[in-house]
Amino acid sequence: MSVRHLVRELSGVILLFVSTAAVSGGDPSVANLLEALGLTSRPPLDGTAFRMQGPFFDKNLSADGAHSCASCHMPSQAWSSDQLSVGKLTRAVPSLYGAADKQYFFWDGRAASLEAQVMEVLENPAEMNSSRLLVARYALDNGRPIASCRPTTHGLADELTSLAPSQLTASESRRLYLGLDLESRSEVDKSFACVAHLIADYVRSIPIPRTVWTSAPKRKNDIDPSVWRGAVVFAGKGRCATCHYGQSFSDGQFHNIGIANVNEVDISDPGRFSAVQSMRQNEYNLLAKTYYPSRVAETEFNVSEEMWGAFKTPSLIGLSKRHKFMHNGRFGSIGEVVDYYDTLKLAVVPTHHYVGLLSPLNLSQEERADLIAFLNSL
Ligand code: HEC
Ligand code: HEC
Hints:
The protein has helices at residues 3-23, 30-36, 69-72, 114-123, 132-141, 154-161, 170-179, 182-204, 225-235, 272-281, 334-343, 365-376, and strands at 254-255, 311-312. It is mainly α. It has a two-stranded antiparallel sheet. Mean pLDDT is 82; it is low at 1-21.
């Protein structure tokens, strides 16, 4: 475990300790509540951090020119969307808020850096359905800053520029890539990774929108009374801040909270359990060829049983703009999510591979409404 990671872990433990200590019993002070939510240290929320937007919104990055990243990660829907039906996606589209401070990406965390994540999405037939060669060609077709990712070997650049439209389909370009000599392939790989890095930088720069929680409230009166009471439930009786805390309300860790398949009573998606195994094979992760090293230590690639059915704690920013929740989009409203945590009705509690994390909350009608008001305020 790296020192940096150890520090993260320890600060997590301290936050958990503070969160239960700060709001148990009575009405907390504003300072105590903010501390319990992990909102005391705030990075600057300056929109000027927004970098070059181009490729994220550019459909030319997909082989059929039909999708961009923003087709699924829509700014107006908290950089998410409810389209489980696009392509062959089996998981819900997560929001991109708070990506800058995460270590792992995807619901199961199978990518150990944002760059590794973007490279996988670009090549995934169910998402961008592009290819390395197409992305290298994209770098040749565009001006700065994307042009900084162009392959430098002249012969290769000429070869890519002269490709006919019929050679620029996803399958044909993948075949052509495999036909290149090793040196040219490595040039194409570098160009591909460079474009992915630009996109990843953009994703990291997406600022968290201003709300009452980002404006450093000083007095209880600054906060709507129902939202305030909901925050107290969230950090206290609801124990939500155990996992959802900090700027984006996520610990970035993996937990099995018993979410069954849509219309079923079982969990068939092994989540983190199989992701950790696939990370060893992923070309862009730490243990393999990597252009943008992750911050993850080798020991993190060891599988353990409690990883089964565990998914990454999602960010809660912009919840009110979204309509599908959980890794499989099982719930269609925030009210349904709160009902789930309140009653744990239909929760899957496997007899093996499980660490019990939640218990029913038995909220009153008012607490339930307040918690929803708080979640809508994020
Ligand atoms: C067809 C819809 C679709 C497109 C297009 C798409 N994504 Fe995604 N994205 C998803 C889905 C679904 C997931 C979750 C998949 C999983 O966890 O297995 C995801 C996950 C992510 C994540 C992980 C977030 C986290 O917190 O773990 C990031 C970052 C991301 N996408 C960025 C991008 C970028 C950048 C592009 C364009 C290059 C893109 N996506 C294109 C649907 C899409
Ligand atoms: C043990 C850690 C943990 C606790 C405690 C916890 N959550 Fe979660 N939360 C998660 C994980 C993990 C997921 C994703 C689970 C999945 O998709 O299978 C999640 C998902 C969610 C989502 C869906 C977000 C999205 O993008 O789909 C909401 C909303 C949410 N939690 C709110 C709450 C509230 C409110 C509480 C307290 C009543 C709470 N959580 C308690 C870990 C936790």
